[in-house]
Amino acid sequence: MSSSSPIVYSFSLLLSLALIFIFAPEILPSQNPFFSPHDDHDDLALFNKALRSASSVHGRGRGHRRLRISRLATKNPTPKIAFLFLTNSNLTFAPLWDRFLRGHSHLYNIYVHADPFSDVQILPPPFESHLIPSKKTERASPSLIAAERRLLARAILDDPFNLYFALISQHCVPLHSFPFLYRSLLGENPLRAFTSQPRHRSFIEILSDDPNLPERYAARGDGVMLPEVPFEDFRVGSQFFVLAKRHALLVLADRKLWRKFRLKCLNLDSCYPEEHYFPTLLSMADPEGCSRFTLTNVNWTGSFDGHPYTYEAAEISAGLVRRLRRSNSSYPYFFARKFSPECLPPLMDIAEDVIFRD
């Protein structure tokens, strides 16, 4: 018996190593240089807290939901739009956004996720007091998904009246007045906006016919996305969205797809997790509840290294604003990117007479 023990131990060790190799991706945190297990643990606690908070506000039954809203409405009955700014540089267009939002503070909230390892300086008004606890972000990594989920969670925790969540980049500018955007999304009856929440649509681009979809799907390795994400369910879309609250909560509750999309990319040229995760998740969970169109106009003509066309100061005009508003959806575009910092002065010059005149 004793003479066979080394053989048995060796076999057991080899078997254990084989099992770890096979099942480690499912039971251990992904090894991604831009997203640590510690970050994942912190975020999970935050998301669970936000989900519990939303559950205590809305309840589970229809009557319970009315009761909770009625009690909250005695304090402030106004539904709001949460603007989620994701940035790794200074908010150059803050003066334009300030003018866009001025006079409507009871109808919106602002939340800013600024990469603490970037060159972001002190945020100007009205953003300086709205910075959330932020972590490092990196292009073509799941850290951008995590940052966007972090923004959603903080907005849900902060104010139960945030009913829409608009993700904005530092290069985005508004194309309409705030009242026009608000009425388009929520109407003019606050109580109806609350009771109609189950019918609110999300505005997120969802594409299934992108010619690069096979390469993007296999960016983490052949078959890695299975079984949670079959190729026929994989989608691509714009990073920037406007989510209804029920879909924001769905994003925070997701664990299954996140386990796949947080994995390290092997082919960085085809891997843009933030453009895949949200369209895929919402298309699989509630395809009829999404418009499949984004409200942010992005010009990919002449794009370079994965970046869209950048508008320069000489191009700013009333005609450009009118062209950027046009959409194939039933809604016009409400935002546009990408603009160089030099565009701020000419945009400010036409703000009142063109941009905010609907």
UniProtKB/TrEMBL annotation:
<keyword id="KW-0328">Glycosyltransferase</keyword>
<keyword id="KW-0732">Signal</keyword>
<dbReference type="InterPro" id="IPR003406">
    <property type="entry name" value="Glyco_trans_14"/>
</dbReference>
<feature type="signal peptide">
    <location>
        <begin position="1"/>
        <end position="29"/>
    </location>
</feature>
<keyword id="KW-0808">Transferase</keyword>
<keyword id="KW-0325">Glycoprotein</keyword>
<keyword id="KW-0472">Membrane</keyword>
<dbReference type="Pfam" id="PF02485">
    <property type="entry name" value="Branch"/>
</dbReference>
<protein>
    <recommendedName>
        <fullName>Core-2/I-branching beta-1,6-N-acetylglucosaminyltransferase family protein</fullName>
    </recommendedName>
</protein>
<dbReference type="GO" id="GO:0016757">
    <property type="term" value="F:glycosyltransferase activity"/>
</dbReference>
<dbReference type="GO" id="GO:0016020">
    <property type="term" value="C:membrane"/>
</dbReference>
<dbReference type="InterPro" id="IPR044174">
    <property type="entry name" value="BC10-like"/>
</dbReference>
